[in-house]
Input
Amino acid sequence: MQYHASKNWGGARNFASRSSDYLTYEQCLKVEAAVEQSINRGVALNRFVTINWSLMGLPPKQGAVATMRFFKLATDWAKTQQQSIHWAYIREANANGLNHHVHILIHIPDIISKKFFTLSKQWIAITANRKYQRRTILTRSIGARVESYSQNYKSYVANLKTVVNNYLFKGASKEAVQGLELKLWARGGLIYGKRCGHSLSLSNSQKKRTKVT
Output
């Protein structure tokens, strides 16, 4: 079966005319709340995935739409398997916008995990409209094993915090670094379009900050 992404996928928030150089404190709190929601709703984010759109030859201003197209293809396929995926993501790049990539924390049900990563290369190729390039997508489990969230919860949460703070939030503003008491900081780089987000399934209407415990 072939999967096709709509050329109209994206939305106003993905306009390439919108750019940023770092994550704001508010954006960090929203991502943090989405991660918290994944645990509360029993869909723990069990994989850490990175997609480097530059390796696929996509210019920086196409990164936001490409990311949303990938999620659309992945979500639609999961539905055909009577399953659902859930995610939170951060986009980064160099100071000039090159080497743009996306870090994704994602929940993939074990029953579709193997097939998901086999097809993910196809979805990336469709999105970029070119042959998949080696090492464009990299993935690892959260915790020692992908089952850590159910078999060794304490280890899972510790590793999840490390990934969020040291990878997703490393390009945060100095205000966010101070407010979240982050130990690492680096420039997030020039990003066009939406810099971060999460699946609607992890939306949280609460305005107060919640912590992963």
Observations:
- Residues 12-200 form one domain.
- The chain has a mean pLDDT of 86.
- The two ends are 42 Å apart (CA to CA).
- The beta strands are 19-20, 47-52, 86-92, 101-107, 137-141, 191-192, 196-198.
